[in-house]
Amino acid sequence: MRPNRLALIAAIIIATTLSAGLPLAAAQVVTLALPKSWEGKKDGTMDNNPIKVNDLLLWRFDRIWPDDPEVGANYLPMPWREAGRVWKPLEHEMGGQPCAQLTDKDTVVLGIRGPWPGGGNNEGFKLAVLVFIVPTNAKYQFSGTVQADMWEGGGSPSLTIYCREAKKPNLRIKLLQTVALTNKTAIDLKDCVFSMEAGQEICFVPRLTNANSGANVTFKKFTVIAAK
Which of 142, 163, 146, 145 minimizes the C-alpha distance to 225? Predict the structure, then answer.
């Protein structure tokens, strides 16, 4: 019989606590990190997306298409591309965006782009998403920083964080928090704390306001702590 998610979380909590030299009575929280590496297994497929960490499916790279992030069915896992070694869709993309990449064990870069009227592609925003798949009922606190580096255009970039109900047919979306971003400035994510239920997803969606704009959005030292 496969262990359920609660049992797996308990095992992670015990292992983490013992490795830290703490008594088991203190095992009320656990850190759920990004994978140490995150690459695909075959070009053009979603193998390894979502990805497991300690036998739990925890993380996924999505794109949003059509480009409305408040429609749950628009969240689509991105395939792996050997060229560039990034997660990137095969269609409805432009110049390499949207895309996602784990560049270090705790660093994720999402590439996004606005519509490009006059440039051959005006069909919408190219949005990449980092998704955390909630494994059990708990309070989740995120840590690390997020930074938008605009490489074209202006406007006001932001990070919108949504709760997505992952079970069909509802796929409901609820806004959890909006974080204003300033170009080339790291913003602390310590205030991102959410009470969640198993089966929900926390979706980190960087957004742009202007056409003819593009940015790389970097999450550094990004971890999540679950507390029962």
Answer: 142
